[in-house]
Amino acid sequence: MNELKHYMFRVTWSNDDDEYVGLCTEFPSLSWLAASPEQALTGIRQVVNDIISDLAANNEPIPAPLFSQTYSGKFIVRVPPELHRRLALEAAEAGISLNRIANLKLSN
After folding, report:
1. Does domain 2-67 match CATH 1.25.40?
2. 52 vs 4: CA distance, rounded Å
3. By three-state DSSP, how is residue 10 classified?
4. Residue-wise pLDDT tens for the chain (108 aa)?
């Protein structure tokens, strides 16, 4: 299961199921229910491992771990005109660019 080390796994509590649920971000349709967080993590890791083996055996694409992907550092966000105006004014008053004010707000 060494190929799993870069995938993003998490365990959360499910009120609906009254159990812990193991999840893998790169495989959003998969989950594993268990009585303990450790069992949920072990279960989802095994399911993902089995799926990866099946995909490889059938020469199907295997999702790349999010951590191995590169990001440009740019994305476009649409905001209401009122928010755009408020941020532009705040940036002008602070003597910095709109881009910088957005970065500051997003990093908090």
Report:
1. no
2. 9
3. strand
4. 557 889 999 999 999 999 999 999 999 999 999 999 999 999 999 999 999 999 999 999 999 998 888 889 998 999 999 999 999 999 999 999 999 999 999 998
pTM of the model: 0.69
Q: What count of Cα atoms within 13 Å lies in the side-chain half-sphere of residue 99?
A: 4
Question: Hey, where are the domains in the chain?
Answer: 2-67, 71-107
Angle in degrees, CA 37, 34, 26, rounded to 5: 75
CA 71 to chain centre: 13
